[in-house]
Write a structure and sequence with these properties.
The chain is mainly alpha-helical and 116 residues long. The protein has one domain (2-115). It contains 5 helices and no strands. The chain has helices spanning 2-26, 37-55, 63-69, 71-78, 85-115. The radius of gyration is 14 Å and the shape is globular. 28% of the residues are buried.
Length: 116
């Protein structure tokens, strides 16, 4: 159980830091408002999910939701948490679905690449 907490803590810190950096570099309050969100930022977040999935192979499924839900604290730090917070949570949930699948597939994919 201790490893689960460590994996969650590390992934949370890395994820929120990633989204804060995105917001700062893109000069937006909400990461999903950045112009390059779908072309650069979301794929980079998926790559982060993959890396965290490889790092915490036992709890690899956890990295997807943690990375995507890391946008919510970032928004709350940069903007006011208003009535649209529920929409932001739903948005993060939907974005986490591909991230969960990617993080779940990380370890078998890594094993296959190393074996070849």
């Amino acid at each position: 159980m201790k490893n689960l907490w460590l994996a969650t803590l590390v992934a949370s810190i890395v994820s929120v830091s990633f989204w804060l950096a995105v917001s700062w570099l893109a000069e937006v309050d909400e990461p999903w408002d950045a112009g390059a969100y779908w072309t650069v930022i979301y794929p980079a977040a998926l790559a982060l999910t993959l890396m965290l999935g490889l790092l915490f192979s036992k709890h690899r499924w956890l990295s997807g939701p943690v990375v995507m839900f890391g946008q919510v604290p970032c928004v709350m730090m940069n903007a006011e948490a208003g009535p649209l917070l529920a929409v932001g949570l739903l948005y993060a949930l939907l974005l986490s679905i591909p991230a969960v699948l990617l993080s779940w597939a990380a370890r078998p994919l890594y094993r296959r690449l190393v074996a070849n």
